[in-house]
Design brief:
Elements (H helix, E strand, L loop, with lengths): L9 E8 L12 H14 L4 E9 L5 E8 L2 H7 L3 H10 L8 E5 L2 E2 L13 E7 L5 H12 L6 E8 L11 E7 L2 H7 L3 H6 L1 H4 L8 E9 L5 E2 H4 L3
Antiparallel strand pairs: 1-3, 1-4, 2-3, 2-9, 2-10, 5-7, 6-8, 6-9, 7-8
Helix pairs in contact: 1-3
Protein name: ABM domain-containing protein
InterPro entries: Dimeric_a/b-barrel
Organism: Eremomyces bilateralis CBS 781.70
Length: 231
């Protein structure tokens, strides 16, 4: 099936294992400077729009690095370019684990969305797998429900290009929250119990989603195309 794309822009999601001993907020000293050298390489790639990152709350050594470009083709071409080798050489100084790289067409579904490193302290995320045509309708329904939940700070999401955990037709959800506790609290309410089927029914397999958790994106360290040239 073909899931609806909310945008033509592509987010290249680079999942890395970078031990917490590396302070990625430090731009000019130590291993943090190596990280920012790697980010500077990303900013030189054709079609670059925006780059942001954060650590997984539940697994602090896991870093989610998101690079937004104008097209999927530009993101795929980057992986075959000398720039990627330059990026990889820098990253290899921080980790000995190969990155997982995926692509998704991520769009925002609420006014003033803060989930994509735009202000939300944490972003709840999950990848829904093996979806059928019913998904697009159900996702639209869910984007009207979750904004009413206390602590909500924006909802975004989009279809993935690659398979995940052996499943095709996958969709990543990224919902901003004031903190992890308000999100988890909602999952134990009668309201969630009565409505969670909206997201779960479209899955064709017994496994409905994977990689649930929270990312603490660094909203104050985002670099966008108009500012990249100034670095």
């Amino acid at each position: 099936m073909v899931l609806a794309k909310p945008t033509s822009r592509c987010t290249q999601m680079i999942l890395l294992k970078v031990p917490v001993q590396h302070n990625l907020r430090e731009k000019t000293q130590g291993t943090g400077a190596i990280w920012w050298k790697a980010l500077a390489v990303l900013q030189k790639s054709p079609g670059f729009v925006r780059v942001y990152f954060g650590r997984r709350v539940e697994i602090p050594d896991s870093v989610h690095l998101h690079v937004v470009r104008e097209t999927l083709e530009q993101s795929q071409d980057f992986l075959k370019s000398p720039l990627y080798q330059e990026f990889k050489s820098a990253i290899d100084q921080l980790t000995n684990v190969e990155p997982t790289i995926r692509h998704a067409f991520i769009g925002e579904y609420s006014p003033g969305c803060e989930s994509l490193a735009k202000g939300a302290p944490v972003t709840g995320t999950a990848i829904y797998v093996d979806l059928q045509d019913l998904w697009d309708e159900r996702w639209d329904q869910w984007t009207g429900i979750v904004p009413k939940v206390e602590g909500f700070m924006g909802i975004a999401g989009g279809p993935l290009v690659e398979s995940v955990a052996g499943f095709k037709d996958c969709y990543i959800a990224l919902v901003g929250w004031k903190n992890v506790e308000v999100h988890d609290t909602y999952h134990h309410t009668a309201d969630f119990a009565s409505k969670s089927h909206i997201l779960l029914d479209p899955g064709r397999s017994k496994k409905k989603f994977t990689e649930y958790g929270h990312i603490a994106f660094e909203s104050d360290l985002v670099v966008e195309a108009d500012s990249a040239s100034k670095l």
